[in-house]
Amino acid sequence: MDTRTAEYRLSNEIRRNLESCILGKQAEIERLLIALLAGGHVLIEDVPGTGKTQLVKALARTIGGQFRRIQCNPDLLPSDITGVAIYHPKNETFMFRPGPVMANLVLVDEINRATTKTQSALLEAMEERHITVDGDTYGLPVPFTLIATQNPIEFDGTYTLPEAQLDRFMMKLSLGYPDAATERQMIVSPHATSPAELLEPVATASQVAQIMEDVKRVHLDAAVADYIIRIIRGTREHSGVQLGASPRAAISLTAAARANAYLQERDYVIPDDIKLLATSVLAHRIILHTESRMNGLTTEDVVQAVVGETSVPVRMER
Fold this sequence. Notes:
Blueprint: H1 3-21, H2 26-37, E1 42-45, H3 52-62, E2 67-71, H4 78-82, E3 83-88, E4 93-98, E5 105-109, H5 116-128, E6 130-133, E7 136-139, E8 145-150, H6 163-166, E9 171-173, H7 180-188, H8 205-216, H9 222-237, E10 241-243, H10 247-263, H11 271-282, E11 287-288, H12 290-294, H13 299-309
Parallel strand pairs: 1-8, 1-9, 2-5, 5-8
Antiparallel strand pairs: 3-4, 6-7, 10-11
Protein name: AAA domain-containing protein
Pfam families: AAA_3, AAA_lid_2
InterPro entries: ATPase_AAA-3, CbbQ/NirQ/NorQ/GpvN, ChlI/MoxR_AAA_lid, P-loop_NTPase
């Protein structure tokens, strides 16, 4: 068995392991894996009790990675996230005590309950893959994926995420309620409250890091690259949009498309990869005119309209 075949098999085992624990959410699991393999971060917006925490814990156990959870509230300080340097009188030196952000998978629960100053402490980690404490820089582990959650129906005591923060999330997802059959299967299970605890690792963090490197080498044809740019520019030129997708959004969409191609056991990106992921990657980065919102237009509508109107390349070089 060659290396690529073994890695394809491993990625499929990761996916099956998650699906055995998180029932009825194949599409959402797929997108979370795409973000992980593309080196991106995820914002999950959903009501309580839909399995957000279990999904992240299950992924961490599946890849044998270190998991940390940060419960946000207005009293949370930046140092509670990054860590602090503590003075030891006996040694007359400062020693760094790492915070919970120093993990492979970090769940930032109810991120919009943290103050804007604390939210901004996450920006360096998300973009630069390191943190700075008292002038010293500390690298984050590989892989490093931050998954934040927020409740879409509670606004008391919350702080809206700024555009700069939203733009650093590769995807925004929603798990939603399960269908009736899946929900019945969940409640009759003796392990319904903590299914992730039963999972055994099927991979290691170092194996996932190697797959991430292979994902970067998935071929992107010039015609497909032009297709991505036309979609990105289309969001900026839409009449209902005040602020369209950024260049970072184009990079995120490309990386996600490469990861999706890899999970489909292809070494090249096709337009269908872009179509599949465009809404998840772009919608949360777009700001509509007030009049457009009042008329019922959504950012998802804009992305779907732009993708539908953008001509698809019919010839690609391999």
